[in-house]
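Hi support team,

I submitted a single chain yesterday and got back a structure, but I'm not sure I'm reading the token output correctly. Could someone confirm the output below corresponds to the sequence I sent? I've pasted both exactly as they appear in my results page.

Thanks,
R.
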Amino acid sequence: MQNLLARSLKYQDGKLYVLDQYLLPHEQHWHLCNSVSEMQELILSLKVRGAPLIGLAATLLVAHLAEQGVSQTELAQAIDELEATRPTAVNLMHCMNQMREALKQTAFVDALVTAAERLFNEDIVLCDAMAKLGAELVKPGEQILTHCNTGALATAGVGTALGVIYHAHQQHGDIHVWVDETRPLLQGGRLTAFELESWQIPYTLICDNMAASLMAAGKVDKIFVGADRIAANGDFANKVGTYNLAVLAHFHGVEFYVVAPTTTLDVDCPDGQHIPIEQRAAAEIKGVSGSFGDCQWAPNNAQVFNPAFDVTPAKLVTGWVLNTGVYDQTQVAAGALKNL
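Hi R., thanks for writing in. Yes, this is the structure output for that exact sequence:
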């Protein structure tokens, strides 16, 4: 397989590496990954994260294992096991389905490698298209709010929602970004702040519960978020807290956009009620851990509700920014997403 290099994922000289996003921004450590169990642990512990990147990491591993001589039967099992790792993000399922088709070929090793390289390079192109289309929605001097992390750390390219912000900054140079810290795992405070700083884009970090006061004060012009799965009717799942922002944006008259590639569409899913929502460990809510160590602040016996995602209904979305275009509510209600 050819060398494939992204911000947090790379296949180089026959070896697969992933950047440990759990340790960012203060420590940059690359994990060498050689097995399904290793990749599962990296995904489940959010060392590898972001819907597009999870799918690509699993894809590169399958192709790598094929080149190492793993049998068709074992590769089929690997695909199934990797697909089951996280249930909400549809990009992983899309990638694994592509690898299943490649595995059916007589020359399955070559087919798997070709599919992996194509999916990786395709993601770069999709990110570019979304970023350019979304940037056209941003005016000079605007203040943009975003949630979680949707940049180059989460994709093979420049990102989804954060890619839009990057391109808008390249065009205008005078935008400002409000960054939700994104509880409970602080992907905004750790990763989005890290990326914006590296891109020299002005930003201000806020707690998630401060967004309403900013909107009430007229300090948010637009909101751009990513998605882990978009249903056929336009409802979408994204990092928990996204739905809160959509409700607040609707009340305050702030434009609210979701940015995602067509690989995040699930046309077989009729609406948000049919999107499975991953429940994560109680420890993520009871305290915090990272490169700085561990701290628990809640009582040991505290009961915890910890969904990784929530679902935003289509009626709260101003527009869907995909690599194929920007779609409004009228178009989506008429079935535009089903025909892509």
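A quick pointer for reading it: The longest strand covers residues 15-19. Let us know if anything else looks off.

Best,
Support desk
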